[in-house]
């Protein structure tokens, strides 16, 4: 650090060192320099010249008479052209080896407005350049001397002087020692710089310099290394060792760069040192290098390296200074990050933001700023403030309080523009406010920035304006409220007592008249002055006074008691008191009354038989009676006013007063704390002396608690006895198997229900919620009838009613009940008997009866169908036979077609009749190969019409290649019919489209055929799907269904070694799947149909039928094949014909008058047994048991009416073939 000689702050009188000559009438003081300088005009001086004696404090020089030197050219030097003081200083510079400067000191920084030309020699900077700099000398002074220089400037006083020495760093890097003589005159700082570099260097020997330099290096606070020109370290100071964690011994002799620098910085450092060593001039200012150093522990450290070369003891030494710049590097990184954030922030600033350059042209702005000009931020770049104002002016409505739409437009424009520019120029101190036509209020402010530019910020203050308007309204409202507030209010200066505000209520309370007189002071006057002093002291100390009761005086001198409350408030440098006053005159009177009332209350409380205690808002005891003390005898000593309730109760628990607190005092106390504020609730507890107490807590209006405690020991004893009695009765009821319940008659509220009752109805009372038996009645009218009977007779027996269980399921019960009175109310004690099983049995019996009835009807229907079928089959046989015969013999194609249509219609009628017969037939099953397609078609023949009238579409997906199954055709027909009829009934509950799909599939691997029947009905609920095949189970009402059809179908399928399955989902329909085994003996199971081609011609055939048309039709058919045909209308006539003729074939009806088929067969069996093999039957009555038994017994071929030509011819051919194999026996005719 440079050596400084300072005398800062010492004042030197202006006459100090002044040498005036007798020839000068009056000396001329041109300027106060560092040492007061004056010059007196010489008597011999020529006009226009300047001569005399220049004298300084400690310096005296002759100033020869010369002509005034010419003024400096503008910008060349002093900056005081035309100023006689500047001319004088220029003259001094020509006579003295010094440089002069003048300036002003502001904020510790000296800014120059005059610099002599010799300053360039010392600093390497021109005078004009020094004047432009903000801190010219501070920027040139060596860093080691800068602190002392600034300290000396800071101590300068007006009129004072200072002398200091420091090193100046020239523009070329050279460093020179200078002495600076400074004085402060008339608020300006004047200085003189002298070059003392030679003087400083000449005074010390080289050894001393070396010693001083090494001492300086060692004591320096920053790390320094010394190394030889080869880079080997010769020394380092303590700061260097501390910074890098090493010692001089460890690094001595090692190459500096390789040892201590990062590889990337070694070459940079070596190159910089090489440049320094290549110069002979060692005064060059070191150039800082930013390099990464390595510590001993291997960690890296960013440093700034300054290398210089000095000659020490005849040898050149490299001095390397290290500065830890970790904080600076981090700060720079943070600064870069912050700068990026700031750039982003500008774009996101909600207010308008813009930067203008020194030329008043816009450099940067955000979208919020550009919005006023209806363009984007990029378009705004380069525009001037004036241009932008002219852009925005048409939008302005009010500018600085001036309505810009009023007056002459041209004049207004000129004046407004001028006003705008003036306001903008001054907006650094006072923001510009204006309003747009759309009602928006904006405020623009500007601030200078470094470099001559300005920042403009525009804020939308529309909301603020609205708030201001609202505040004005609120202020008016507040003042109105205060003025009309009945509570007196004062605002006074706390220390002076000056009354700043008083409300009308305050004036009135102190007895003044409104409005006040000039000398009236409506402020409370304390009757005792000391009270006022204490009031003010308390207010200042605490900042508030609450309800201070004092004796006060009114305007007329009368006194009264009042309570003063006050708050302290500071506004600026003043302290104010805001006071209110309450007149306590009435209150004092009331307190006296209250005291008397309290004594009366105390007497009343003591007379109570209950324990009584009153606690305040802090739950501290206020008072209690003797009864309360007697009850709390273990802790009665704590029952004094002011005792906290929690302490009193805790002590009682610890002393063993309460049974529930034994062994758990803390937990019990927490429970009591929770119950403390449960008001209007009566609670009970037992003390250890056996007594029971009931207590309740009630709140007072003031927030306290009133506690009452009553001895209920006797009541508890009675309750115990009652409970034992009740428990006995309850035990009997709980154990009784009969359901018992007690309910309130009025609304059905369940008072009690026994376990047996809950078993029937479920749990009626849930979670403490009330339950009502009236909710269980399916029909509310049943309860009204029930109550009417009860109230009429006093009891009912076996009242059957449908109720609901707790889960909602209906249940039939028989109720027996009595009406009683309990606690003043009508109660019903009832017992219920579950009728579910009885009802189920009755329903089952009804269904079985219905099923039996249906069975009887079917049996009767079978007999009826047998007769009807016989009557229908005869005419159908005639129609079918003649139609087929006509089709074979007619030559006209039209007749053939008509005969075909007749035959088809008759054939359809024939199939329908056969289907009826199959359904009604009651006979043992006959298994054979059955084609399921035939079964389905036969079923649809019967059900087709009802399906069509129900708008049900039938879709058949039947594969002709599916093999037959092994089964009874009649039973399978019944299964398919039941399923189709059920599907039709189910689909009647849904809207169209209604679709019935029937599909068959052959599974060769399983050897079975599956038939699926799917409907689009509503589906079957999942919970009943498993029951649909149960006998007598049905969802239909009694009379509409028996529940037998699907159960019978299920048994039939299982008897056929098959399976039936139902798949259903609500809303998606139902699918029934039948799986039946395939026939494995088709050839044996299905007898070969006789062929008409096998019939031998010219046979003699006897036709026996009681229907002439049928007999004739048979004759015509057989005669067409060349047979000789004879007909007989009864069995008797046939016997007479048989006795006289020989017949190859006898075809007989089964049912005939006189002698029917079975009787004829029995007669032939007796008289002509050989004809039995030639006999066959044609019947329309295979349904009757007698006919069925007969045909099974005789095992003769037969065909059913109506029949086809092929069936008839095949039958005849079969008999003729058989008789050829077996010739007729004896008596064959």
Short description:
With about 1250 residues, this protein is α+β, with helices and mostly antiparallel strands. Strand 31 and strand 32 form a beta hairpin. The chain is elongated.
Q: Can you put this structure into words, describing what you see?
A:
The model is unreliable at 1-82, 407-414, 1082-1087 and 1224-1229 (pLDDT under 50). 26% of the residues are buried. The chain is built from 38 helices and 50 strands. It has eight domains: 10-201, PAS domain (Beta-Lactamase); 205-326, Beta-Lactamase (2-Layer Sandwich), CATH 3.30.450; 349-468, Beta-Lactamase (2-Layer Sandwich), CATH 3.30.450; 485-583, 2-Layer Sandwich (Beta-Lactamase), CATH 3.30.450; 600-717, 2-Layer Sandwich (Beta-Lactamase); 736-822, Beta-Lactamase; 926-1086, Histidine kinase-like ATPase, C-terminal domain (Heat Shock Protein 90, 2-Layer Sandwich), CATH 3.30.565.10; 1092-1221, Rossmann fold, CATH 3.40.50.2300. The chain is 39% helix and 26% strand. It is elongated and about 190 Å long. The longest helix is centred in the last third of the chain and has 54 residues, at 836-889. The termini are far apart. The protein has a seven-stranded antiparallel beta sheet, sandwiched between helices. With 1229 residues, it is an alpha+beta fold. Helix 28 (893-920) packs across helix 29.
CATH A-level architecture of the largest domain: 2-Layer Sandwich
- State the separation between the terminal residues, measured CA to CA: 170 Å
Proportion in helices: 25-40%
- SS field, number of helical segments: 38
| CATH class group of the largest domain | Alpha Beta
Roughly what fraction of the amino acids lie in strands?
25-35%
Mean pLDDT over the residues? 77
Structural shape: elongated
The largest sheet, given as strand count, sense and whether it forms a barrel, is: 7 strands, antiparallel
What is the CA-atom radius of gyration, in angstroms? 67 Å
How many domains in all? Answer: 8
**Regions with little confidence, pLDDT below 50 for 5+ residues:** 1-82, 407-414, 1082-1087, 1224-1229
CATH superfamily of the largest domain: PAS domain
CATH topology of the largest domain: Beta-Lactamase
Write out the strand line-up for the largest beta sheet, numbering strands in chain order. Answer: 17-16-22-21-20-18-19
**Number of E strands:** 50
Provide the structure class: alpha+beta
